[in-house]
Write a structure and sequence with these properties.
CATH class of chain A: Alpha Beta
CATH superfamily of chain A: Thiamin diphosphate (ThDP)-binding fold, Pyr/PP domains
Radius of gyration of chain B: 19 Å
Helix content of chain B: 25-40%
Number of strands of chain B: 14
Helix content of chain A: 25-40%
Strand order of the largest sheet of chain B: 3-2-4-5-7-6-12
Strand order of the largest sheet of chain A: 3-4-5-9-8
Order of helices and strands of chain A: EEHHEHHHEHEEEHEHEHHH
Number of strands of chain A: 9
Distance between the termini of chain B: 45 Å
Oligomer: heterodimer
Strand content of chain B: 15-25%
Number of domains of chain A: 1
Number of helices of chain B: 12
Structural class of chain A: alpha/beta
CATH architecture of chain A: 3-Layer(aba) Sandwich
């Protein structure tokens, strides 16, 4: 992107496309300079998500997971890069129905996630939520929402509370390119900017809303611009590069924590699998998917960085084996846990039983 | 006649009507190129072009409002709401605009339009992909609500709905898209091909709105059902050897009270079954109507078998689902009282 001189606000360089005079802009994010240890951790987390999702796909095929199941494979760098910059003690996260990766990236036990997918009592929502409806207040993970776009307004409310109680926290509210067309997203944008709420709106643009590509559903397909008319600045980020993602997170957090209100990140990413388990994905070619896998895979990319940083092959192998063990254990746990007791049917519909 | 499952029958209804009337347009999330999440609109865009079968952004409120404007100005939109659970953002438009337009323009503006939506549970969809919100719409005056239970009715009712001059909500029980599910979830799935109602004419025909069907004749008890529950009722009566009359309502607004009244007066007993939650469900309306019309013919209190007053659980789905066991208990109670 071309650089232009900064405006009088002195916010640093901003891409020409985003430049509107008289408005302060965030600086152009820099690719994060991670230590070897940090990179190993990103690798570990991204690999955990991928192997976990592959296993979930297998369990679905075996009939152990039923209903709807949306895999995060291909998008790992987004949740890992962004959430590695958050403070899980203070910052809240909320997302849509493709939620397994965000939970793993926030340190939630794979066993209880997998057990939720198989609908078991040990699942994080006692099996009653399922793949799309998982929560952990303890981890400040607020779901897991099956209604497209609904979580964006909820995230705005979480941010309101962060500001109201002055707890220093920030809400990270994820949604997809499809949800970006829901009206309530824009109602939320308006309120968030009006009240200068500490929220990072994250559009995970994986190019397809189920079977509809972005440019067939969005009159402005450069989604990072969607906040402009609300004075919410936007940044477009390479969502396949975990270090670029982390760099963008740093910039966004600096903006939001400085009390400047919401910011919008558009993460350009790609899902390798179908929208859900029943999607034959005829709306795109195999070549297209293969090309992304070959050229832009986020896990292969960080692996190359690790090799360049002098990490030995057997060190990587050790991580691979460890992940394999964790995922296999989660599958065993999810398979062996009992289903919820019938008495659970009526619990938690309201606080009191009726 | 051709053998069709419910998806094919609904697809055929679209096709027949689009071929007859250039004012009919099909719109919704992924209905054009992709052919709909359950493939009900497959092939329509290819055949009729992108101006008549087109994809919308994911924005149910906007979709409904735009479609209402189109209908007010002479088109006949057939809108797919991808899941009934997604219809709530459009609720404002459907209630306050679609439902009221004819009344507040003294009949000047009418809205010949259909909102179709896959609905109901039985496919492990969890709380946001399993709901049965028909009672919410039945409560709104100015719109009609239709719920078919088999391929023949699905096609005929959808054509009637498209031709109807008023807005119609058309809920398609997704559990029976591919086969008549009777609630015995551990038994092998039956395809529609083995069911007589899968014999569907290829061309135009209608099944009138507001007219129930007697799905099974009987003398001892009347079961009022619609959608998936018709099959649960038929199987339960058969397996338990109960001489039950099963009424398939097909349309809940307007409801065919005459057929209900005739049956209950004959049997003297009535059991109502639906998948939606119990409190304020359409079963409550039916029970009220039955006692208003048939009180002195009733031999026992009217029974309701319904989903529980909880969100649709992901696990425990078959506990929530009002299947043959629970219906059997209610029938026994109605017969013994």
């Amino acid at each position: 992107m071309a650089k232009t001189p900064t405006t009088k606000s002195g916010a640093g360089d901003a891409p020409a496309a985003q430049q509107i005079s008289n408005r302060e802009r965030p600086a152009e994010p820099q690719r994060y300079e991670a230590s070897k240890e940090e990179m190993l951790e990103y690798y570990r987390q991204m690999l955990l998500i991928r192997r976990f999702e592959e296993k979930a796909g297998q369990l679905y095929g075996l009939g152990l997971i039923g209903g709807f199941c949306h895999l995060y494979i291909g998008q790992e760098a987004v949740a890992v890069g962004l959430q590695s910059a958050l403070d899980s003690k203070t910052d809240s996260v909320i997302t849509g129905y493709r939620d397994h990766g965000h939970m793993l990236a926030y340190g939630i036990d794979p066993n209880v996630i997998m057990a939720e997918l198989t609908g078991r009592a040990a699942g994080i929502s006692k099996g009653k939520g399922g793949s799309m409806h998982m929560f952990s207040v303890e981890h400040k993970f607020y779901g897991g929402h099956g209604i497209v776009g609904a979580q964006v307004s909820l995230g705005t409310g979480l941010a309101f509370k962060h500001k109201y109680s002055n707890d220093g926290g920030v809400c990270m509210a994820y949604f997809g390119d499809g949800a970006a067309n829901q009206g309530q997203v824009y109602e939320s944008f308006n309120m968030a900017e009006l009240w200068k709420l500490p929220i990072i709106y994250v559009i995970e643009n994986n190019q397809y809303a189920m079977g509809t590509s972005v440019n067939r559903a969005s009159s402005e397909d450069q989604l990072y611009k969607r906040g402009e008319s609300f004075r919410i600045p936007g940044i477009q980020v390479d969502g396949m590069d975990v270090l670029a993602v982390r760099g963008a997170a740093e910039e966004a957090l600096a903006w939001v924590r400085a009390g400047k209100g919401p910011i919008l990140l558009e993460l350009k990413t790609y899902r390798y699998r179908g929208h859900s388990m029943s999607d034959p994905a005829k709306y795109r070619s195999r070549d297209e998917v293969q090309a992304v896998r070959d050229k832009s895979d986020p896990i292969e990319a960080i692996k190359r960085e690790l090799e360049a940083a002098g990490v030995k092959a057997d060190e990587i192998k050790t991580i691979d084996n460890e992940i394999k063990r964790i995922v296999a254990e989660s599958a065993d746990f999810a398979e062996q846990s009992p289903e919820p007791d019938l008495s659970e049917l009526y619990t938690d519909a309201l606080v009191e039983k009726y | 006649m051709t053998v069709m499952n419910m998806i094919e029958a609904l697809n055929s209804a679209h096709d027949v009507m689009m071929g007859r009337d250039p004012d009919i347009v099909v719109m919704g999330e992924d209905v054009g190129y992709f052919g709909g999440v359950f493939r009900v609109t497959a092939g329509l865009q290819k055949k009729y072009g992108k101006t008549r079968a087109f994809d919308t952004p994911i924005a149910e409120g906007g979709i409904a409002g735009t479609a209402i404007g189109m209908a007010a100005y002479g088109l006949k939109p057939v809108v797919e709401m991808q899941f009934a659970d997604y219809i709530y953002p459009a609720f404002d438009q459907i209630v306050s605009e679609a439902g009221r337009m004819r009344y507040r323009t003294a009949g000047e503006w009418t809205l010949p339009m259909v909102f179709r939506s896959p609905y109901g549970g039985g496919i492990f969809g969890g709380q946001t992909h399993s709901q049965s919100p028909e009672a919410l719409f039945a409560h709104v005056c100015g719109i009609k609500t239709v719920i078919p239970s088999n391929p023949y009715d699905a096609k005929g009712l959808l054509i009637a709905a498209i031709e109807d001059p008023d807005p119609v909500i058309f809920f398609e029980p997704k559990r029976i898209y591919n086969g008549p599910f009777d609630g015995f979830h551990e038994r092998p799935v039956t395809p529609w091909a083995k069911h007589p109602a899968a014999e569907v004419p290829e061309g135009y025909y209608t099944v009138p709105l507001g007219k129930a069907a007697v799905a099974r004749e009987g003398n001892d008890v009347t079961i009022l059902a619609y959608g998936t529950m018709v099959h649960v009722a038929l199987a339960t009566a058969e397996e338990q050897g109960i001489d039950a009359e099963v009424i398939d309502l097909r349309t809940i607004v307007p409801v065919d009270i005459d057929t209900i009244e005739a049956s209950v007066k004959k049997t003297g007993r009535c059991v109502i079954i639906h998948e939606a939650t119990r409190t304020g469900g359409f079963g409550a309306e039916l029970a009220a109507l039955v006692q208003e019309r048939c009180f002195y013919h009733l031999e026992a209190p009217v029974q309701r078998v319904t989903g529980y007053d909880t969100p649709y659980p992901h696990s425990l789905e078959w506990t929530y689902f009002p299947g043959p066991t629970r219906l059997g208990i209610a029938l026994k109670k109605a017969l013994e009282d």
